[in-house]
Amino acid sequence: MRSLAVDVIKQAFSQTPAEKLHKKLYVAICNCILEGSLRPATRMPPSRDLASELVLSRNTVLRVYEQLQAEGYISTRTSSGTFVTESVLDNLNTQVARTTQTAQPEDRSSLSVRGLEILENASASPAQWGDFIPGVPDVNSFPHRTFKKIYDRISRRLNPEFLTYDAVGGLEDLKAALSDYLRTARGVKCSTDQILITEGIHQALDLVTRTLCNPGDHAWIEEPGYWGIKNILRMNAVSISALDVDDQGLVPQTSPVEKPKLIFVTPSHQYPLGSVMSLPRRQLLLSQAREFHSWIVEDDYDSEFRFSGQPIPSLQGLEEDSPVIYIGTFSKTLYPALRLGYVVLPKPLAAPLKKVHNELYRSGHQVIQAALAEFIKEGYYAAHIRKMRQLYSKRRNQLVELIKQHLGEEYLGYFNSNAGLHLIIQLPPDADDMQIVKQANAEGILVRPLSRYYFNQHKSKGLLVGFASIKDSDMLPSFIRLANIIKHKY
Ligand SMILES: Cc1ncc(COP(=O)(O)O)c(C=O)c1O
To answer: Are residues 393 and 340 in the same domain?
Structure first.
């Protein structure tokens, strides 16, 4: 089979100015190796093939290979061929580091005001895997083999429609499986045609904001709250009121100057503090939404993981035809890279929002969706959630004990309910949680500063500590390192 390396070298060869052919080929291959387009351990094309592709004599190619071998760029393994040397990596790394250092300075002059605002408020962490990372489930526990078996089975009798664009807001089978699941597990009132499959909650929030808000409209969010929603509102020029959260959830304004078009809440498990919205608060919010003609956006990101008491039913299901757009995700129950979430749209919004979604995002991934539908229908999804619930409950208890033992009970966040994938370590108001996080992150401990989740000036200090994905054997040593950083920093 013709190798990709031939094409890479051929392209570099055509762009290399040199008079002598062997020099030209030598420079082209060196550049490919140093720039990384021929990576360490890549098999070099056989000299005969390369000579024929580049219309060179085989001797020219052999001469260049000999020179590259003498200089350590490539090496020959008896009876298996010629390869880019593994140790070239060190040289390559130095070269890449040099290129990065001399890279063009950032030019933001052509960015829009909104784009600049997003950059100024950028909050997504560059590191997404490490000790105590909040919000990331134990991705190693996902039953990859089972899922692959289902996926392979579907791939063998592939429906061609799975390989073209999705134009109906997600695969029917998945929407049907989800509506059954949401009705029983989350008390959501829905039919299959109200469901829209998205690439996660994040995309759903963007769709809802873009489609329902005009620039200058107003939205309520929770204070503190999910950072992602703030940047989506900024990008859509929607003004924000960040309303306090107490032990009953969001505290609504009774006579707001500006009525909100959208109200974003996490009633089952407030993000990030952890309180559960009480029934009176839910009823008040629903009646306000009806009075203001607002839509409540219920972000039900991790409600499957409640470790004691009854599951908290959705706000959406509390009333018939409630003014609630319900949003959920597979990021926490399965794994974030799946990038699959869902919206339960109120009936009057179902058709228009699906259409806008189709116009804006051109969806796909139907084979994965079909596999997921089977995974749910065959009971694997519920079984996985049950298993993870036990595991996370155990890890959460361990973390609570470590906080009490190494820091003190007063460090446990006020509203931490027995749920979710993270806990809050509460810090005194004068603590610099950003500094603590900076040092912890440098040591591979990926906690996040609570103050980063606030919109207004008054910010509580604390740390979001994820317990879901940390290895049991790492829990104690990593926590001791974190506790030492906290104690040392103030
Ligand atoms: C409260 C909340 N909502 C939404 C999301 C994003 O979910 P998704 O991965 O489905 O975009 C997160 C991710 O951490 C979250 O914490």
So the answer is: no
* Sign (positive or negative) of CA dihedral 456, 487, 401, 448: positive
* Count of domains observed in the chain: 3
Band (102; pLDDT cuts 50, 70, 90)? low
CA of 201 to the centre of ligand 1 (A): 6
264 lines ligand 1 (CB under 6 A): no
Residue 26: give its domain's CATH number. 1.10.10.10
Residue range 303-330: mean pLDDT, rounded:
95
Question: Do 322 and 201 belong to one domain?
Answer: yes
Ligand 1 neighbour 200 (Cβ under 6 A)? yes
Q: Is the pLDDT of residue 434 over 90?
A: yes
336 lines ligand 1 (CB under 6 A): yes
Residue 166 to residue 90: CA distance in whole angstroms: 45
Please give the Cα distance from 465 to 422 (Å, whole number): 5
User: Is the alpha carbon torsion for 205, 208, 209, 210 positive or negative?
Assistant: positive
